[in-house]
TrEMBL record:
This is Glucose-6-phosphate isomerase. GO terms for cellular component: cytosol. Its EC number is 5.3.1.9. One of its GO terms (biological process) is gluconeogenesis. Pathway: Carbohydrate biosynthesis; gluconeogenesis; Carbohydrate degradation; glycolysis; D-glyceraldehyde 3-phosphate and glycerone phosphate from D-glucose: step 2/4. Keywords: Cytoplasm, Gluconeogenesis, Glycolysis, Isomerase. It comes from Fermentimonas caenicola. It comes from the Bacteria. It catalyses: alpha-D-glucose 6-phosphate = beta-D-fructose 6-phosphate. The lineage of its organism: Bacteria, Pseudomonadati, Bacteroidota, Bacteroidia, Bacteroidales. SUPFAM superfamilies: SIS domain. HAMAP family: G6P_isomerase. The gene is pgi. Belongs to the GPI family. The keyword Cytoplasm applies. PROSITE patterns: P_GLUCOSE_ISOMERASE_1, P_GLUCOSE_ISOMERASE_2, P_GLUCOSE_ISOMERASE_3.
């Protein structure tokens, strides 16, 4: 198997193969609309042929900027929120050593990657500043709109710290801004300071931007091969183009199944992983599907669990709670490392029945046992199998989910490329903070308190 696979044999009898096939024309037409730009949100389809259209020059530009940061910095802080950080973090966590950041600087091949601007926690920022005080650090500041409050606050603090530590000139070498070509405060600031910048194309929304410099620059700084990542994505781009029939279009099949489950009362999709490295892939996936489909009072609620950890906390609910859920499991066929359970003479822990077995064999039996139990408990199960955890297959998975999300949103009947609901909290926050321009809103909100 040279590609991610999808196994749909465990739908708990809730959706049949015939019912899936009956939707093939609708799914194919949704897929075509993504390529032709004939439905709502057609201004945001730049991601559809992005993997196959990144040029050698663009790769080099990103790789060179990554080399500058890698040369000057032991720590690089990725400042961004939502689509401006989750994709990078998903890939970096999935493809780097979980404990590398604990190694002393001399032993490390890659800079430590930290994340800021994804919260407004004073403690978090204060502790990060303390840590960075004695580090050679740099900043990748990412915001498509260039006006998002969380990253703007973090960047102001970190920029001040960096300038104090290394001076304005050296700071300019260590700061990269990724934002709109012309609009927004970050564009103005970056141009006036003379930072190296990358552009987020107008026609690619934040949650679809991981294969633009938004994701690729931090990923390259972390020492990951971005060309292989993009190659993987391009393979699924090709495998889901307009010439591919529904039976072979895996994202279309996944999109149909989740919509059919939704129509039958399965309102919550739980993305399951069995490797902690995939935790942030699920966070990325949650934004992708949550912002794309949760509108017009509709949409599957995307949730995620890390197994087997959460089997010891959420396992009870999944097995026997309200039957409104289905699971999508990401299964990694072959781990990158090999660890065997050792023999123990006295066997006080009673584990000798596992001696000589790979830890992954135990993990796989937990996975299989859980799947069988959950399906028996009435939880439909979609299985996505990845041959191994590497750049190519993560690239494939990214495009698989992006394509599935576009098709799924159209099948549901929403515009998968806007997110009007996100503004509500921002307007209230600005009114409460008495931001200039919000005077009327301030009066009105304060009268409600
Ligand atoms: O990249 P930015 O413009 O800073 O936006 C960052 C994020 O925040 C917004 O509120 C949107 O809901 C997200 O779709 C976006 O990814």
């Amino acid at each position: 198997m040279d590609s991610i696979q999808i196994n749909i044999k465990n739908l708990a009898g809730i959706v049949s193969e015939e019912e899936i096939l009956r939707k093939s024309e609708l799914a194919t037409s949704a897929n075509n609309a993504l390529h032709d730009g004939t439905r709502e949100g057609s201004d945001f389809l730049g991601w559809v042929d992005l993997p196959s259209s990144i040029t050698e020059e663009e790769f080099r530009d990103i790789e060179e900027a990554a080399t500058v940061l890698r040369t000057h910095c032991d720590v690089v802080v990725v400042v961004g929120i939502g689509g401006s950080y989750l994709g990078a973090r998903a890939v970096i966590d999935a493809l780097t050593n979980s404990f590398d950041w604990l190694q002393p600087e001399k032993k490390r091949k890659n800079p430590v990657i930290l994340y800021a601007g994804n919260n407004i926690s004073e403690d978090y920022l204060s502790e990060m500043i303390d840590y960075l005080e004695n580090k050679e650090f740099g900043i990748i500041n990412i915001s498509k709109s260039g006006t998002t409050t969380e990253p703007a606050i973090a960047f102001r603090l970190l920029k001040n710290l960096l300038e104090k530590k290394v001076g304005n000139e050296e700071s300019k070498k260590r700061i990269v801004a990724i934002t709109d070509a012309t609009k927004g405060a970050l564009r103005t600031l970056a141009d006036s300071e003379g930072y190296k910048t990358f552009i987020i194309p107008d026609n690619i929304g934040g949650r679809y931007s991981v294969l633009t410099p938004v994701g690729l620059l931090p990923i390259a700084v972390a020492g990951i091969n971005i060309r292989k990542l993009v190659t993987g994505a391009a393979e699924i781009e090709k495998a889901t183009d307009k010439t591919v029939s529904f039976d072979y279009n895996l994202p279309a099949i996944y999109a149909v199944i989740r919509n059919e489950l939704y129509r039958r009362g399965k309102k919550i999709e739980i993305l399951v992983n069995y490797h902690p490295k995939l935790h942030f892939l699920a966070e990325w996936w949650k934004q992708l599907f949550g912002e794309s489909e949760g509108k017009d009072q509709m949409g599957i609620f995307p949730a995620a669990v890390d197994f087997t950890a959460d089997l010891h906390s959420m396992g009870q609910w999944i097995q026997e709670g309200e039957r409104t859920i289905f699971e999508t499991v990401i299964s990694i066929k072959e781990p990158n490392k090999k660890v065997l359970v050792p023999h123990d003479e006295v066997n006080l822990d009673g584990l000798n029945y596992l001696k000589g077995k790979r830890v992954d064999e135990v993990n796989k039996m937990a996975e299989l046992g859980t799947r069988l139990a959950h399906v028996d408990g009435g939880v439909p199960n979609i299985l996505i199998e990845i041959p191994e955890l590497n750049e190519k297959y993560i690239g494939q998975l990214i495009y698989f989910f992006e394509k599935a999300c576009g098709i799924s949103g159209y099948l549901l009947g929403v515009n998968p490329f806007n997110q009007p609901g996100v503004e509500a909290y921002k307007s209230n926050m600005f009114a409460l903070l008495e931001k200039p321009g919000y005077e009327e809103a301030t009066k009105s909100i304060k009268s409600k308190l």
